[in-house]
Amino acid sequence: MSAIEDVTRLLATGYVPYHGVVDGSVYERLKCLRPKRAKWFTREAKKICLGCSRGCVVADAMGFELTLPVSGRAKRLCFAELPAVSARELLDKKLFLTVPEAEFVLNVSTRSVYNLLEEGRLTRHPDPPTRITSASVRQEAERREGDNATGTY
Predict the structure, then answer these.
(1) C-alpha–C-alpha distance, residues 83 and 97, integer Å
(2) What domain of life does the native source organism fall in (predicted)?
């Protein structure tokens, strides 16, 4: 498994990066050859190191500086929540898209989606919440692809 897959798996199971100080006795106990490469993740008292291929696990907090708990929101800072389907599948299967789905298909920000709605390039359903016709998103995506192909975008 790659390092990215290892980190993703740990984050998905509730682990968070550990930013406290680790005492040298921990590395001695683990017979660690390269303590400077250590990258620790923690969940409750359990700690896992991804600094090398050994993947050392420590079940107690002995030798680890106590740190304040991290809120659940901070765990997902670097990972986007993307639909499990492609942009084309969204357009083919849904009559109306949510704002995040339109962002995903067009690869633009939330503000850009609302700007496109205000400009009339995207068509919204008249009732709340904001839903955008997949036909107008498809048309805008094709327009952008055409502009990009001709170099005007």
Answers:
(1) 12
(2) Bacteria
Question: Do residues 15 and 48 lie in contact, with contact meaning Cβ atoms separated by under 8 Å?
Answer: yes
Residue-level pLDDT, tens digit, the chain, 153 residues: 577 888 888 888 888 888 888 888 889 989 988 888 888 998 887 898 988 888 889 888 788 877 765 554 444 444 555 546 778 888 888 999 999 999 989 999 999 999 999 999 999 999 999 999 999 999 999 998 887 665 544
68: closest CA among 107, 94, 42, 39? 42
- Contact yes or no for 137/97 (Cβ under 8 A): yes
Token representation of residue 23? 């005492």
DSSP-derived pairing of the beta strands 16-17 and 57-58: unpaired
Predicted TM-score (pTM) of the model is 0.46
Backbone phi, then psi, for 82, in 5-degree steps? -105, 150
Separation CA 120–CA 142 (nearest Å): 16
